[in-house]
Write a structure and sequence with these properties.
Blueprint (H helix, E strand, L loop, with lengths): L12 H14 L11 H15 L7 H20 L4 E5 L6 H4 L7 E6 L1 H10 L8 E6 L5 H12 L5 E5 L8 H12 L4 E9 L1 H10 L1 H6 L20 E8 H7 L24 E8 L1
Parallel strand pairs: 1-2, 1-4, 2-3, 4-5
Antiparallel strand pairs: 5-7, 6-7
Helix pairs in contact: 1-2, 1-3, 3-10
């Protein structure tokens, strides 16, 4: 992950891109969160990737709002009694280091081996706030992830699952299978996901989609049902927060997008919407 002479090479590289936005937000005097690890994690390559995805960088507000909302729902899940957080496709997330968490909380990160090894190298001298474990696994390996979920479910009484930035790279069928796999574990109680409407998915595919598709990181998932997509697979939407609405509340939203507010209660498929959802086991 050290070559800085090209753009996004694979889906793992998008983690550096996201870390770049966290680093920018952290430098603001009115930052919505502080991630002192983001700049190191993004590295020179992360800043280079950002410079090659000019269209994508127009949406800094969305990445910031997404991070803020995942922080909010993760903290809420822990307050509500989660004793283990399972972070799927954890990327270069630093929440176990930067959030105020109980020392007894178990936090398990899962991602590709190259991401895990890079992250451990960068953060080897830092101490997490809770009991952190990292596991290398390709989440598209269905039998392997089912075995992992079974092991995790046996280790805790109340598991909260995070999958920030993961589902958009899956097909609808693959997301449905993952949802069923997670719901099959009795102790998996909450799941935090981010979603895009079909209209927003098309906009994203037009802006940065070509470069990401060439890196085998194509955007795919934008369900017309929104958070209701998960109901048949065992998950009930408990809270849904739009990213644009959140960004506007904190004066991060571009002026040209404010006409899209207030968001409709039921988002039409062609409406450009992104959001973060806290799902609860049905």
């Amino acid at each position: 992950m050290s070559d800085t002479n090209c753009g996004v090479r694979n889906v793992s590289d998008t983690a550096r891109w996201v870390a770049y936005f966290r680093a920018l937000e952290t430098k603001r005097s009115d930052a919505l969160f502080r991630d002192p690890y983001a700049e190191r994690l993004a590295g020179e390559r992360g800043f280079h990737i950002a410079s090659t995805l000019a269209q994508g960088n127009k949406h800094e507000w969305a990445w910031v709002a997404r991070t803020y909302l995942f922080d909010k729902f993760a903290a809420q899940a822990v307050r509500d009694g989660a004793d283990l957080v399972l972070n799927l496709a954890a990327g270069l997330d630093a929440r176990p280091y930067r959030m105020e968490l109980p020392a007894t909380l178990q936090w398990v990160e899962v991602d590709f081996p190259e991401i895990i090894s890079y992250k451990e190298e960068i953060l080897c001298g830092d101490k997490p706030k809770c009991r952190l474990e990292r596991l290398a696994l390709d989440l598209s390996d269905v039998p392997a992830r089912r075995s992992l979920f079974e092991l995790i479910g046996a280790r805790a009484e109340k598991v909260a699952v995070i999958s920030e930035g993961l589902l958009i790279y899956f097909s609808g069928e693959d997301v449905a299978t993952l949802a069923r796999d997670l719901a099959a574990e009795d102790n998996f109680q909450n799941w935090i996901v981010d979603l895009a409407s079909p209209g927003q998915l098309k906009l994203m595919q037009r802006s940065t989609g070509k470069q990401l598709s060439e890196a085998n990181a194509a955007f795919k998932f934008g369900p017309p049902e929104g958070a209701d997509f998960f109901r048949p697979y065992g998950w009930e939407p408990k809270e849904v927060e739009g990213m644009l609405k959140t960004a506007a509340e904190f004066k991060r939203a571009p002026a040209e997008l404010l006409a899209l507010l207030p968001e409709p209660k039921r988002v039409p498929p062609n409406f450009p919407w992104t959001g973060v959802c806290l799902l609860q086991k049905r």
